[in-house]
């Protein structure tokens, strides 16, 4: 219930030993999308395809929405979800365990003003759905309203079409990926003693139907590959990891990507033997392109989620239209990056998901909205209404948050710093929404001394304040990278997959939580 | 409902055996949770949920998987097990995988842990709403409350039933209830910040809920107390950690006690059984048998009978958390793979007296992000709290960081309070350390 929000790499969660996966007993049946990209919206297209295999039909949906509105809510929606997730784990050289999880259920939401009633069930029967709808309906207390009599569907973009769905990929096709990585990581550096590889694939589908008569199905694949290495050298041990993720299929794992995964995991581990204590106190911080987008996620992304602003509790509540950064700083939250972990074709309320500009040339432009906040502000929803699963009501969430390229060069930025640090990899971050204070944890970085990267550093938390840190972004390079890692964002105990990115940037001053006293 | 869920667990076990599993652990759970949240004078959200789940651990041809489903239709369970067993057969064999030895199931404590409040089913929607409303009203009575921007409160409660059966003879069920109350206040700070803070309690029995009005006041006072917070200069200084925050610091070390971390060489505590890790004040038991406590249990996640045991004693490391699998890999006896309630040997003083003794330093009241490296013991954690001068709480501080290495930090533990935080299974009191590195300006 704590309003604090965080983001972390999938690997962090995986390390704890996770449960959850499921080899899918999906009834065979061709999947037909309601409409392919470019197809014209048509009333005929509005029929239940994927969820028909579980006995869901239009009549059931109509009846449930009717029950949901029986006490006069303004609006109701149903969120059906089927998700089959498998994890395969390689440890001590063998893929000798798998975890699987199957989720099937439907959530019923009723909205009255900015009040929400929510119920869900894992039994997809008319009776169970009616009971869930009655639970949700109780948020309102007025005369019954009628639900939609017919459904229509809008064309969805196709940002993650797969040639072969994960349900149709055999374990035998996945296992060589894990064993190959293990062999290559051990071969890459004799100091590597232990390798853990975790491979996750997920076949998911959602159906959203609402009281405005929208009916939308989307198929949502996901995969994450994570490699952790433990290395030993002169009696010391170090561990680090690398992971990649996307709404992709098996062909995501190209030779090139798998080689990079091994190279990065090993390099990020063994360099820790050379690391010195990180410094302590305020100093300039240069953030490398890519996963340093965690800065944006924490320093501004969460604070721009409109629920916090609607309630007046975000530090950005009174800043729309005002300058918050240098004119060369533009930040977007983008659902459209094909096959990205943070990509969505449609949000979890059925609203179109495109590109939302948070900061336009230094000016705070738009909050991230769900349907409730969009109505509150009298604007169109931005397609940021997301939820962890059918067990949860949606709220404004990020998708893929990144900064657009700027006018500077990476080398010029590093050369500009006399004493500071350069950060290249991160594990997690957190923000306090109202105070604006945020942190992110650096796994790998370097000292910058007299304009040059010198000794590696490790394991240090950076701490700053959102609006102040944005103002202090005083150089932005032209080398934008959207990170390929498996980031997961947590808010109010709901986790959703996100992406982030950034070009190389300089933050003029941040507090570095190391232990070596600043010299000079 | 209970009988039905137990039957599903048993049927899944039998079915998995028929389909070729040599050993099976089958568990079902049924949870009902109701949440009411309240904000600024009106209802914000109500939700009610029942979740059902079947979890099976399968041991097939010397191979292992763990699978879970919420689709409990009989026909779905059959194909779920077919698929799961088929998938298990594609993996590498692993001779270390098996159910626990049946002897470990023996000797369950004969006590009533009092985890299930019989009164739970009588709780009404009005009861919940009244609590949530009362908490907000109380928050708005504190001195300086005109600076409050928003108060969000919540009341949530649940009933959980779990059933576990193993093919080598274990059978058990555990039922429990919980009630949580929560309050968060956001306040205006002349600097433009809108600091928030919260307070929360969780108990097993409705009758054990403390005065919820006090909870509302505490959330508001905490938020108002952080108005004007600033970072202060970096220093090596004495640090006192509030009992609510101290559990997190301890938890940062606990990952390294895990069998998986030890066997995978990802633990800075490997080989340190019996060694001195902390000052003589570091004395912690894992105690699963405390009535009404949040981490209590008669058997653990593998069916192993729960027993109280020391984790640290006078600074020395006394035991690890090792499950059946990593026990075999490490060639040691399994204890339990997870902690239950962590209880400290308490000191004699409360926080006020400890502040007086400490004189100067910082008081940490909550953490903000950061991380800890299980392999090396290094940690770096964001925090907020207060400066402490001449033994009393002075100005609020924020945007600060604490860093260290567990092997050094716990040796600098110089005092332990008499005030364990009871709303967590990690029942840590106020802790005082000397000479830790904090970062600010």
Q: Would you kindly provide a written description of the structure presented here, covering whatever features stand out?
A:
The complex is a heterodimer of chains A (520) and B (441). By secondary structure, chain A is of the alpha+beta class. Chain A has ten helices and 23 strands. In chain A, the strands form three sheets. In chain A, strands 2, 3, 4, 5, 6, 7 and 8 form a seven-stranded antiparallel beta sheet that branches. In chain A, strand 7 and strand 8 (236-246) form a beta hairpin. The longest helix of chain A has 18 residues, at 171-188. The longest helix of chain B is centred in the first third of the chain and has 17 residues, at 2-18. The model of chain B has no long low-confidence stretch (mean pLDDT 96). At the A-B interface, strand 2, strand 3, strand 4, helix 4 and strand 5 of A face strand 2, strand 3, helix 2, strand 4 and strand 5 of B. Strand 3 of chain A pairs parallel with strand 3 (63-69) of chain B. Chain B: One of its GO terms (cellular component) is cytosol.
In short:
Chain B: Residues 32-85 form the Metalloprotease TldD/E N-terminal domain. The complex is a heterodimer of chains A (520) and B (441). Chain A contains ten helices and 23 strands.
Features:
heterodimer; A: 520 residues; alpha+beta; seven-stranded antiparallel beta sheet; B: 441 residues; PmbA/TldD fold; 3 domains; six-stranded antiparallel beta sheet; five-stranded mixed beta barrel; 9 helices; 17 strands; 22% helix; 36% strand; globular
Taking the sheet with the most strands of chain A, its summary is: 7 strands, antiparallel
Order of helices and strands of chain B: HEEEHHEEEHEHHEEEHEHEEEHEEE
List the uncertain runs of chain B.
none
Our measurement of the CA-to-CA distance between the termini of chain A, rounded to an integer number of angstroms, reads 44 Å
